[in-house]
Amino acid sequence: MRIILLGPPASGKGTQAKRLMDRLGVPQISTGDMLRAARAAGTALGREADEFMKAGRLVPDSVVIGLVGERLAEADAQAGFILDGFPRTVPQAEALDALLTSKAMPLTSVLEIRVPRDLLVERAVLRRTDVRTGQIYHLKYSPPPPDAELEHRADDQEDKVTQRLSDYEAITSALLPYYEAKGLLKTVDGVGELDEVTDRIASALEPGR
Ligand code: AMP
């Protein structure tokens, strides 16, 4: 299973990728998580990414392509992976194609999670992460336990979310026809209970669907 989860910010990519990882037994590779870890560790790459992330803008292609290239070379990724938040631009998708072709590891499916825009803003603004476990909660729909140590991402403030949504529509959505033309694109409805959405994704991934 070599899968890409595509979708706008707060469509549920990260949450669903974590759930699918358990079901499918392949790692989740999230460029957002990797960049946040680099930033927290204070590496040069993390410092470079920080200004873009704080503004809700895309980090330069060369930075994320390099990160993904290194991650895909690790042992656990040889059995498959779920890419979450990468690629986000056509040059990133082309670089990924070249890399996977050189490894003879073609993509299995690209799944688009579709959620209406007004829901996305509400989801992001009320999203919280437990910094100790990485678990993602929503203050209204999926409330955290009382002992959670919650963080609200700076780029989940409403103005930053609006910026990220605009970039998704203007730049990342070009990946939908890109993967459609390759016969890889499947779309699932991302509105509903977490379990329902996971089931929809799992059945879209069944061979022959
Ligand atoms: P995410 O957690 O996927 O929403 O990513 C958080 C932030 O990291 C994004 O708003 C971007 O600033 C940056 N980022 C993550 N993945 C990428 C990517 N593939 N290309 C460019 N920037 C990215």
Helix-strand topology string: EHEHHHEHEHEEEHHEH
Helix count? 9
Which geometry do the CA atoms define?
globular
* Oligomer description: single chain
Q: Which architecture would the CATH scheme give at its second level?
A: 3-Layer(aba) Sandwich
| Strand order of the biggest β-sheet | 2-3-1-4-8
CATH fold descriptor: Rossmann fold
Strand portion: 15-25%
The major pleated sheet works out as: 5 strands, parallel
**Which homologous superfamily in CATH is the superfamily?**
P-loop containing nucleotide triphosphate hydrolases
Distance linking N and C termini: 14 Å
CATH class: Alpha Beta
The assigned structural class equals alpha/beta
Average per-residue pLDDT, rounded, comes to 94
Task: Give an overview of the whole structure.
The chain has 209 residues and is an alpha/beta fold. The chain has a single domain, classed as P-loop containing nucleotide triphosphate hydrolases (Rossmann fold), CATH 3.40.50.300. It is 47% helix and 15% strand. The protein is built from nine helices and eight strands. The strands form two sheets. Strands 2-3-1-4-8 form a five-stranded parallel β-sheet, with helices on both faces. Strands 6-5-7 form a three-stranded antiparallel β-sheet. Strand 5 (127-130) and strand 6 form a beta hairpin. Helix 2 (31-41) packs across helix 3 (44-54), helix 4 runs parallel beside helix 5 (90-102) and helix 6 crosses helix 7 (158-170). The longest helix is centred in the middle third of the chain and has 13 residues, at 90-102. The two termini are 14 Å apart.
